[in-house]
Design a protein that fits this description.
By secondary structure, the protein is mainly α. It contains 6 helices and no strands.
Amino acid sequence: HLSVPELIPIRLTRQVTQLMSHIGRAGLFRATMNALRQNSDLLVNRIKSARLKLNGINPALIIGFLRSSNLKEARHQMEKVVRGDKIDSKRAQILLKYNSNRYHKLTVDE
């Protein structure tokens, strides 16, 4: 962590639009900014989740925090990865196949 946080201008519009000048502002950039503005709650939730993970919170607990959100399908998929779903998770399938945690005998494909 920095002893003094970096100072960034609140409005970087001029710098960003100059950076995007060769591809134009009206297309992808405008659509992206509009999507972020309309779905800012999703972005804020992702930032909060990332902060929790960086602070050492177990990902399974973070997923528990998502239960209250409207992202039930995304939460379900993340839970399958974190908990090791026996149908979809390669890690869980390997553990079942070898009846132990013997990763040293894995093939390149596994």
